[in-house]
Amino acid sequence: AQRVTQPEKLLSVFKGAPVELKCNYSYSGSPELFWYVQYSRQRLQLLLRHISRESIKGFTADLNKGETSFHLKKPFAQEEDSAMYYCALSLSGNTGKLIFGQGTTLQVKP
Amino acid sequence: GAVVSQHPSWVICKSGTSVKIECRSLDFQATTMFWYRQFPKQSLMLMATSNEGSKATYEQGVEKDKFLINHASLTLSTLTVTSAHPEDSSFYICSARMFRDRHTGELFFGEGSRLTVL
Fold first, then answer.
1. Is A3:A26 a contact under the CB 8 Å cutoff?
2. Partner-chain residue, chosen from A32, A43, A102, that has the shortest CB–CB distance to B43
3. For residues A63 and A33, what is the distance between their CA atoms, to the nearest angstrom?
């Protein structure tokens, strides 16, 4: 069965420290992975997707099919990065529905 | 950018009544919309996929007679919680994908609707 796992509920770091939010997936098809972010009192929004291989707000994520992982990384965390981060898996097919992980709250302390 | 709007953002109702939540794509057409449910401090659980002009596809364990979904146009999907009970209290979120990206691509999310059933 398809599944997305984010093992950490809360990740707390100091400003300027490196950040890695872990995400593992289980899916027999060809995976398409996303990271979505939800800032306080705002709606969910796309942060990045593995297909585009770009860096957004300093964040990057590499799809590792061997380890079935899509960890989100940033070398130097900023206070404004504090938010809830969700890893999501898009299922192939004609609906492309999105399955979410449990979410990780990133807290960047000054 | 693409905007998805939900209404109402907050609703309180008595047990046994029905509540309708609207989800609109304001500046794009969406043949497919998705309805999620989120419990406090938990992840988003996909409830159903709403397809314009056809029946919704429900996820396992979601009662289709309880959560009625109608997607009558390319810009509007509605979720009706029928005979609501306190356990239906939750945060309901819809999302939509642009028609041109209907198989893959970014999902745009509504702001969510908080339902409280007394």
1. yes
2. A102
3. 8
Q: How far is CA A42 from the centre of its chain?
A: 17
Number of CB pairs, chain A paired with chain B, less than 8 A apart? 48
End-to-end CA distance of chain B: 37
Question: Tell me, what DSSP letter sits at residue A95?
Answer: S
Q: What are the tens digits of pLDDT across the range B11-68?
A: 999 999 999 999 999 988 887 899 999 987 788 999 999 888 888 999 999 999 999 9
Residue A91, token pair as written in the block: 């299922």
| Euclidean distance between CA atoms B69 and A69, whole angstroms | 34
What is the per-residue pLDDT across A30-84, written as a single tens digit (0 to 9) for each?
888 999 999 988 999 999 988 777 888 999 998 999 999 999 999 999 999 999 9
Which residue from A44, A51, A97 is facing B46, i.e. has the nearest CB? A97
